Structure formats: C-alpha cells, structure tokens
Amino acid sequence: MEKMNQALEKMKMLVGMDVEDDEADQQQDSSFAFVDDFNRNCTLSTKQRLYGFAICFATGVACTLLSMLVFFNPVKFGITFSFGNLLALGSTAFLIGPKRQVTMMLDPVRIYATAIYLASIIIALFCALYVRNKLLTLLAILLEFGALIWYSLSYIPFARSMVSKVMVACFDTEF
After folding, report:
1. Do 159 and 114 meet the contact criterion of CB atoms below 8 Å apart?
2. Most CB within 10 Å of its CB: which of 16, 67, 115, 161?
3. DSSP letter assigned to residue 72
4. How far is residue 157's CA from residue 153's CA, in Å, rounded to a whole number?
5. Sign (positive or negative) of CA dihedral 57, 58, 63, 67
6. In a 3-state reduction of DSSP, which class is residue 132?
7. What share of the chain is helix, strand, coil (3-state, %, to 5)?
C-alpha cells in the first residue's frame, strides 16, 4: 500500500499537483519561505501563464537569434545571447511556478548542470561587460552554449548518458 501511495504522490508531482507530506512540508516551509510567499502573491490564471510563457520565451529566443547579427562584436553578442538565455530559462517559471522551477533546477540529478549553466552565464556577462576581451567573451559564450545543451539534456531521461557514450565513441583514439 505504501508503494502505491508513493507512486500516486510521484504522479501528482509530475502533473504539478501539491503532495501532502507533513514532514517534508515543514522542512520545505523553512527553507523556501521566501519562494512560498512569492508563489502566493503570484497567482495567475492558465491563460495569463501561457501568455507570460509565450512572451518571455519568444523574447528570449529573439534575443538569442538577434545576437547572431552582432556576432563579430563579442561584447554585444555576449550580452544579448546571455540575456536571451536568461529570459528563455525564466519563461518556464510561468508554466510551473517559480518554486517548482527552483526545486527542479536544484534536483540532485541536475544540480551540477544548473550550477555550470548559471556560472557560465555570469562568466560570459563578466567577460563582456568588465573584461571586454573578445577572445575570452567568445570562449565564455561557447562554454555557455555547451552548458545550455547539457542542462537541457538533464530533463530528458538517459539523454546525458547517451550523449556521453556517443562522444566517447566518436573521440576514442584507440584503434
């Protein structure tokens, strides 16, 4: 019976429903108090959530694509590309809510991918805004793009292990 309850709770979590677990709620209440308050104040209808997602995601993709126009100016490229990535990343908070977004980003499966992705955005912006070195900015953007792919693959089951095996097979130097 306990396994059935656990399976039901997992299904509720996948669909976005609240799971009633007293001990876990008490622990999360203390650690996510700010996010809980933020969630309560940001109640949107389904239509508003979809509009917010669409606008934020479209703006993020537009910034990312428009950054290609200024590719040869790495400072402008780094700023627009990073801003587009942040908007696209933030757009999913409209769909699932900021608390669940943060919880999913900090999930043990993708905590390293999230940390590398966010750090690469910060590094790219730092290189573009303060260092103003074109080579460093381009290297930071390449790191950011790779981290974005790795972070995105963390949401697809077994995708990262499959890509890792393909890369090892492609770049294996033993004959």
Report:
1. no
2. 67
3. T
4. 8
5. positive
6. coil
7. 80, 0, 20
Instruction: Indicate the pTM of the whole model.
Output: 0.68
Nearest to 59 by CA among 88, 97, 82, 79: 88
Distance CA 78, CA 144 (A): 10
Half-sphere exposure of 143 (CA within 13 A, CB side): 19
Write out pLDDT tens, residues 86-139.
998 888 888 888 888 899 999 998 999 999 999 999 999 998 889 888 888 889
Closest to 79 in 3D by CA, of 115, 117, 132: 132
CB atoms within 10 A of CB 19: 12
pLDDT digits (tens, 9 = 90+) for 136-174: 888 998 998 899 899 888 888 899 999 999 999 888 877
